[in-house]
UniProtKB/TrEMBL annotation:
Monomer. It comes from Aggregatimonas sangjinii. The record marks 19 as: Substrate discrimination. Keywords: Cytoplasm, DNA damage, DNA repair, DNA replication, DNA-binding, DNA-directed DNA polymerase, Magnesium, Metal-binding, Mutator protein, Nucleotidyltransferase, Transferase. The lineage of its organism: Bacteria, Pseudomonadati, Bacteroidota, Flavobacteriia, Flavobacteriales. It is an enzyme of class 2 (transferase). The active site is at 109. It catalyses: DNA(n) + a 2'-deoxyribonucleoside 5'-triphosphate = DNA(n+1) + diphosphate. Residues 10-190 form the UmuC domain. Its EC number is 2.7.7.7. Mg(2+) binds at residues 14, 108. PANTHER family: DNA POLYMERASE KAPPA, DNA REPAIR POLYMERASE UMUC / TRANSFERASE FAMILY MEMBER. This is DNA polymerase IV.
Length: 366
């Protein structure tokens, strides 16, 4: 185990079936039943599924039609994001009782760096246990946690004993844990990458470790060096309390395909309104506007334009989106439209700033 890189005490907390669990909490009649949060129409998509539904193979991002086919008794409920955000804020307040180094990934998961913490507790394992206990005591919801020396391993570990469990990977266990791990469990290895690795004879962390950095970079590009390092327990990314967004966007999938540009403009108006709200809430603006179009045959097209100035007003965003819409003739009807802003006016100096790593002794209690 190399000892010349930062060694931290990182917790990854992941709520269990968060959206569906909130619905079961607020609606007792749904408890113990298969629940899917999302639309039940033929165009609907499952946003979250309760563990009762998952037993039937229902998963997030699955078509509602397929989900219903897998589980005829499935109960669909509409998403209530205001409620989810309210509970998420309560959970984060609990996190901040232990450390200010909290990096939310979404409403239902976050990294915490408790190397130095407000409780003066040297055990990250006990802190994770206490946090999970408080979440259940105060909100009657369960959470799982992973604890280890870096974000990568903590993320993997949080899924190990789900639901309502936790796993600690101590410093001396890191290499064995990674070597024995199925390659599909590596965070950042999706289905396509896993299939490619299988063809190369890579099925476990041990197999991955036998490949040279040059080989992995040749086969996987920039990701190759990432795979080479993480399987050796090297991942130096810090918990970043204030994540700088790279883009701001919104999109809508329609119940019926749109073939009229008039109807498309009407939808773009709503999307631009939402983007303006998000931009002003974060006090940011952008120069590059991208229009996303998904056709009825599921082909995807993007059209972009970079302006000479930063924009955050709906009128300018919508006008540019209109220009992009009329840029080419539509060859098919449309099922989804989206707008995003990139090249934001966030402080790039913060992104480029490099801090000297803090080296910590390898042996310390978890």
């Amino acid at each position: 185990m190399p000892n010349d890189f930062p060694l931290r005490k990182i917790i990854h907390v992941d709520m269990d079936a968060f959206y569906a669990s909130v619905e079961q909490l607020d609606h007792p009649e749904l408890r113990g039943k298969p629940v899917a949060v999302g639309g039940s129409s033929k165009r609907g998509v499952v946003s979250a599924a309760s563990y009762e539904a998952r037993k039937y193979g229902v998963r997030s991002a699955m078509s509602s039609v397929v989900a219903k086919r897998n589980c005829p008794e499935l109960i669909f409920v509409k998403a209530r994001f205001d409620r989810y955000k309210e509970i998420s804020q309560h959970i984060r307040k609990i996190f901040y009782d232990y450390t200010d180094l909290v990096e939310p990934l979404s409403l239902d998961e976050a990294y915490l760096d408790v190397t130095t913490n407000k409780k003066g507790n040297p055990s990250a394992t006990l802190i994770a246990q206490e946090i999970r206990g408080r979440i259940f005591e105060e909100l009657k919801l369960t959470a799982s946690a992973g604890i280890s020396i870096n974000k990568f391993i903590a993320k993997i570990a949080s899924d190990y004993n789900k639901p309502n469990g936790q796993k600690t990977v101590n410093p001396e266990e890191v290499l064995y844990f990674l070597e024995a791990l199925d390659i599909r469990k590596f965070y950042g290895v999706g289905k396509v990458t896993a299939e490619k690795m299988y063809k190369l004879g890579i099925f476990t962390g041990q197999d991955l470790k036998t490949k040279s950095q040059e080989f992995l970079e040749e086969k996987f590009g920039k990701s190759g060096s990432f795979y080479y390092n993480v399987v050796r327990g090297i991942h130096t990314s810090e918990v970043k309390p204030h994540r700088i967004p790279k883009s701001v966007g919104a999109e809508r999938t329609f119940n019926e395909n749109l073939s009229s540009e008039i109807f498309m403009l009407e939808r773009l108006d709503h999307i631009a309104t939402e983007i303006e709200r998000r931009l002003k809430k974060s006090n940011i603006a952008g120069k590059t506007i991208t229009l996303k179009i998904k056709y009825s045959d599921f082909t995807l097209q993007t059209r972009s334009k970079t302006l000479p100035y930063f924009v955050a007003e709906k009128a300018l965003i919508l006008e540019t989106a209109k220009t992009l819409l009329y840029q080419e003739k539509m060859e098919n009807s449309v099922r989804l439209l989206g707008i995003s802003l990139a090249n934001l006016n966030t402080d790039k100096k913060e992104l480029l700033k490099k801090e000297e790593p803090i080296l910590v002794q390898l042996q310390f209690d978890f």
